[in-house]
Amino acid sequence: MLPAKIERVWLVDTHGSAVEKKAPPKKLTSGQRHYMYRLGLIAVDQFLKQRGFRSNAEGSSVSYSYEKNRVWIDIKLKPPDNIAFVTSHPGYEYKQKVIGKASDGQERYGVNATVITAKDVLGSDMLIQIMLSTDDSMGTRTPIFVPLPKDLPNPAQHVLKQVLGTIALACETIPKMREAFTEREIREAQAQPIDVSTVPLLPD
User: Fold this and answer.
1) Using CA atoms, how far apart are residues 46 and 55, in angstroms rounded to an integer?
2) Alpha-carbon distance values, 165 to 9, 40, 168, 188 (Å)
3) Do 95 and 112 contact (CB within 8 A), yes or no?
4) What's the burial of 199, exposed, middle or buried (CB within 10 Å: 0-12/13-18/19+)?
5) Pick from 121, 27, 131: which is nearest to 80 by CA?
6) 3-state DSSP of 85-132
C-alpha cells in the first residue's frame, strides 16, 4: 500500500521565515464549553481544599462554597441573563402603572425603569460569580463577575487562571487569608495544565 498523501501549506511570516499553515482550532459546542468550565472549577476546588478550605456544599459541579478562618467563598457558574440591574433613564419619573391583577386580586405594577442584564454588559453566554464574606464589619463583599467569552481557546484553563487570580486579589484585604494565596503558589496553579483530551470536538 502506498503511504497516505499529506498536503502541507507553507507561508512566509513578517521575518521572512517559512512557517506551516495550520488549520484553525475546531469550535466547541455550548455543551463542550460548559463541560470545560466545570473542569476549570474542579481544578479551583482542588487548589482551595489543599490549602485548608472546607467545602460547605457537595454534589454540584456548578456551585461551590468554602469556609476557612471565618471567611466564606462562594463560586457559581451561571448565565448572565439571571443578573439584572434596574436603573433610571433620562426623563425617568417614578409612577406606578397597573398592568394587571394577581390571582388573589392584588394589583400588579410594571417596572418604569430600564432593565439591563449582565449579558448586555459582558457580551458572554456564561460567567463565574465570586462572593466573599467575613464575620467582621466588612460583611459580604460586592459580587465579582468573571465573563466567559465563547471564543476562548481553552475555557478550562481560563476559568482556573481567572478565578484563582480574582480570589487571591480579593483576599489581599483580608489579613488572615493572605497566607493561603502566595503569589508563587497562585502562578504555579494557574500554569498547571488541565487535561481536556477527553472533550470530543466538533468536525469541520
Assistant:
1) 11
2) 40, 13, 5, 11
3) yes
4) middle
5) 121
6) EEECCCCCCCCCEEEEECCCCCEEEECCCEEEEHHHHHCCCEEEEEEE
128: nearest Cα among 48, 50, 63, 56: 63
165: number of Cβ within 10 Å: 16
Cell 410594571 sits at which residue? 110
Number of Cβ atoms within 10 Å of the Cβ of 55: 12
CA distances from 121 to 84, 117, 148 (A): 10, 7, 13
Beta pairing, strands 107-110 & 114-117: unpaired
Q: Residue 89 corresponds to which cell in the numbers above? A: 433613564
Q: Which three cell numbers stand for residue 82?
A: 439571571
Q: What are phi and psi of 17, to 5 degrees?
A: -95, 145
Sheet of strand 126-134: strand arrangement: 54-55, 63-68, 71-78, 126-134, 144-148
> pLDDT digit string (tens) for 76-104?
998 877 666 555 555 555 556 677 787 77
Every domain of the chain and the residues it spans: 27-79+125-204, 81-123
Cα angle for residues 135, 163, 174 (degrees, 5° grid): 30
**Residue pLDDT, tens place only, 111-147:** 565 655 666 656 677 889 999 888 877 777 788 888 8
